[in-house]
Amino acid sequence: MAEMWISMGPQHPMTHGLWTLKVKVDGETIVDADPELGYLHRSVEKMGERRKYFMNTTLTDRLCYASSTTWTHSYVLAVEELMEVEVPTRAQYIRTIMLELQRLASHLMWAGAYMPDLGHITGALYFWRDRELFLNLLELPSGSRLLYNFMRIGGVKRDLPDGFEEKTERILKLFEQRLDEYADLFENSKIFRMRTEDVGKFTGSQAMNMGITGPNLRGCGVKHDLRVEDTYEIYEEIDWDVCTREAGPGYSDCFSRYMIRIDEMKESVKIIRDCFKKMPKGPTMSARVPIRASGEAFRRTEDSRGEALMYLVGDGSDRPYRWKIKSPMFTTISACPHYLKGYKLADIPAIMGSIDICIGETDK
Amino acid sequence: MASDRKNLGLMDIFVNPMKVTIKQFFKSTFGKPTTVMYPLEKRDPPPTYRGMNAVIWDLCIGCGICGEVCPNKCLKMKPVDLSDEEKDKSWYGSHVAKKKSKAERPAINFGHCMFCGFCEDYCPTGAMTMTDFYELADTTREALIYPARSMKVDLEESPTLPLTNFMMESPALNSETCIGCSKCVDNCPTNCIIMDEGAVNKELKSGKVRNIENPFFDYTICIGCSTCVKVCPASCLHMEPIANSSSSGLTIPVPESEA
Fold this sequence. Notes:
The complex is a heterodimer of chains A (364) and B (259).
Chain A: E1 3-8, E2 20-26, E3 29-36, H1 44-49, H2 57-61, H3 68-83, H4 89-117, H5 121-142, E4 151-152, E5 155-156, H6 164-187, H7 190-196, E6 202-203, H8 204-210, H9 215-218, H10 226-229, E7 251-252, H11 254-278, E8 294-303, E9 306-315, E10 320-326, H12 328-334, H13 336-340, H14 348-354, H15 359-363
Antiparallel strand pairs in A: 1-2, 2-3, 4-5, 6-7, 8-9, 9-10
Helix pairs in contact in A: 3-4, 4-5, 4-11, 4-14, 5-6, 6-11
Chain B: H1 10-30, E1 53-56, H2 65-69, E2 75-81, H3 84-89, E3 102-109, H4 118-122, E4 128-130, E5 145-146, E6 152-153, E7 169-173, H5 183-187, E8 193-196, E9 201-203, E10 209-211, E11 214-217, H6 227-231, E12 237-241
Parallel strand pairs in B: 1-6
Antiparallel strand pairs in B: 1-4, 2-3, 3-5, 7-12, 8-11, 9-10
C-alpha cells in the first residue's frame, strides 16, 4: 500500500495547543513524523528585552498556563544570580511550597487532559476537581488563580496568609485519599492499561540523546532531577526522594510516564509537609534589590515538564540585553519521530499526550 | 508486561472502580454543589485578590511610580483639579507640605490592564490598592478607560505609613552642568530637595562671578521616582543605586531590616 502524509493539527484534539504533527503512514503504521511548531510564538524573549527586569515576571507567568510559578521562579533565580541578590530563608521556603503546589496543579492538569485523549472523559472531571483545590490554595497568597506573579526578584510578593498551613494540610489529607481513588480508577483499569502499556517506548539512553528531561526521563528509570543535581532553594534540607519508574529494563512506556507523575505528586505532598515543619520566621524579601545588572547568568530548574533553562545577559542597564529560554517540551516534541515510529495511528494521542505537552513554553 | 506491574483481578476491574464511582455519585447527588450560581451568588475572593484598582487620594503624592512600573503601560498620570477639602487632606505626611489645586492622579485603561499588581507593590505610600471587584466587562473600549477620579476612594482615617524607596535608586547630581533652575524642587512629589550654595561659581557676561545654587537631596524621604531626572533641562541628574548616591554629601540611611 502506498505511503501517505496525514496532517494532524493545528486544530486537532490530539494537539493540546496549536501545533501540527505530520505523520507518514503505511496503512495504519507510522513510518515517519514531522512536528511543526511556532503557531503560538509570542516573541517573549524580545519583549522581555524591552522591559525592566522585574516586569518580566508577568511574561514568564504566561509561558505556561499550567505551570506559571515554576517558570517565573527559574527566571527569578537567573536574575538573582545576575544581580547577586541573597534571598531570605523564609522566602526560599515559601517559594518551595508554591513550586510544589504548582507542580501538583500542573500534573493534575496533565492527567485531566490525558484521560480524554484516551477516551476517558470521566478522568478529566476527577483530576480537574482536585486541581481546583490547589488553585484555591495558590490563590490565597498570590491573589490570582492562574497567573500568580508571586515570585519577586529577591523574595516573594508577600508572606503566607494566616491559616494557610492548616488549609494546606486539610487539602493534602483529602488529596491523599483521592490518590487512592485514582489507583482504583485508572492505574488498575484494564482499559487504561491496554491503551498505555507497551506504547511509545523509548529507552533511557535514547531519551538522554534526544534531550528529553523531567518526568519523561525519570519514567525510563534514570535518576536525574535538577532539584538534586543542580540544587536550588532549600531542596537539600528537605526530606524527599527522587522517584523513578520503568516499564522494563531501562525503558519507559506511556503507563510508566503516567505512574511517575503520580509518584511525583506523592513526593510533592511530602515536600510541602516538610517545608511547613522546618520553615523559620523572618523577612520574605531581600533588603537590597538592585534594578540594574551586568554580566551573564545561567540557571536551570526542574520544571513540571523537565529542565527549564534561563540565560540572561545584562549590559548595565535596567533591561536584559539578551534573554534566552530553553523549554523542555521543545526538545521532547522535536524528538517525536523517534518514539512514534512503528506504532499505529490510533496510538498517537496516547503517546503525545503522555509526554505532557505545553505549547506556550515551547513556542515562547 | 513489566514485572513490577500488578496483574489485575476481578476486584480491580469491576468492584474497586465501582466503589469510587458510586461514592462520587452519592456525593454529587445529595451533597453540597461545587458550582456557584454566578450572577445570583458570587464567589468570595480572598483578601489578597487582585481585582480593580482603587487609589486612596489622601495618600497619593502623584509621583508616577505606578505608571513607571506598569508593564503594559496602561496606567497614566492625569492632571486633576482638587477641591479645597481634598487640597487640605490630600498631602502625605508632615514633610510634604505642598498645597496645590492641581495634582496628578493615576488613570487606568482596564482594557490593557493584566492585574499583575506591580502598581500596588511599588507604591511608596500605599495609596494604590487592589480591590476584590472583578466585574469590569463593558460594551465599548472607551468605557474601559477609567478616569482618575473614578478610582478615588476615601478612608475615614488615612494611615501614615513610612515612605519607602522600592525603586532602590535615587538621584545623583553632576554639579558641573547644573544651572540652578530649581525645576526639580518644584516637581519633587515628596519635597525631599532643597536648593543651597553650590560648588561651582560661574562668570556672567557682565563680568560678575555668581554662585549657582545646586539641589541637595534628603535621601531619607526620597522615593526614587526619578521625576527630577525627567524634568531636568540640563541633564545634570541621573539615577544611581541607593548605596552609591553620596554626591550631595548627605549620609545614606541604613534600611530598618539591616539596622
